[in-house]
């Protein structure tokens, strides 16, 4: 029986996990952060790395350290009913309701739409593109046994080839210095917190919990079955993946910051990257960028459909088969994608503001559970406080026409950092310290 992965096997799984994590959002958000933060680049990037790299790594570590088979088992520490509620909400959010439709719309809005024939209505172009994307995504998703080959060995290397071709050119011939650019908006007054909130949008902390089921099954295909060895391999591949992501985030943000002086501040990161690619490769740049974004989104969408389908088969074994779940989720994503990127983002942000604190508190409790011997009641107290506080951030992030001023006003009065989108942070930290102290006192008495 094997004890550990070979270096080649670790790299293959890490490449697959990187491919699952790294979608278009992982490019467009750091690119815009670079342009907007200007001379505050490094403090903003530090904030982004906390939520964009640190939390996904901790999520993977939580699954490994607790030897959980997936999110369902990990969240079951709070309670059986909660595990169903939280697992369904998280997978539907990063699956067919928000993240997969974003994988359809981001490459279209930021790359493909520029290549459409003149006179073709944008809605028609989106429908045709999303139909093609849907067909390719479903083809790969219906063959989950080969996901490690498709993503780890082919799609991820192809994406990286396009990425580094553009980025190395930009680094060798910078358009300007980020140190002379004035920070814009919130990056001028609070670059660190702005970076933290920008990292939310990648959804990678949620993805770290969601993709655990794929990573663990991939490790087992290489012959490692002992729980402690699977846990060690999960930690190793998670660390390699997150290091690679940190490097690419830094490169993307730096290139974005250096372009500000010559190209100005773009409306979003997709537009910024498209302008950079077109500047360095006139004519060819738009095609290169479109291919890069398409590959980035395709591999993530395949992984999300696979993870969602496998999880729902596990949760509801007497309902639909894997293939039927995959088709259902793909059809849902196809339909939602055609409402447009702006609408998807506006409705996904409030849900993320609710899910992220719940995920962070679960990860924190799981990582320290052995140290403090937390009981189920401790998990329940922590989750209840987190939910009540995060609900305020949910209401605050709703579109302006849907906000209830009485609710947001109440939360604003009672929660510090509420206006910064971090109203949950201090209360949850205080509750964790109290629970940890109580557990340590109980240990000493016993």
Automatic annotation (TrEMBL):
InterPro entries: Brnchd-chn_aa_trnsp_Livcs (IPR004685)
Subcellular location: Cell membrane
Record's keyword terms, sorted: Amino-acid transport, Cell membrane, Membrane, Transmembrane, Transmembrane helix, Transport
Pfam families xrefs: Branch_AA_trans (PF05525)
Topology class, membrane: Multi-pass membrane protein
Residues spanning the membrane: 12-29, 41-63, 84-104, 124-142, 154-172, 192-216, 237-259, 279-305, 325-347, 353-374, 381-402, 422-441
Matches recorded under PANTHER family: BRANCHED-CHAIN AMINO ACID PERMEASE BRNQ (PTHR30588:SF0), BRANCHED-CHAIN AMINO ACID TRANSPORT SYSTEM 2 CARRIER PROTEIN (PTHR30588)
Functional description taken from the UniProt entry: Component of the transport system for branched-chain amino acids.
Family stated for the protein in its record: Belongs to the branched chain amino acid transporter family.
Descriptive protein name: Branched-chain amino acid transport system carrier protein
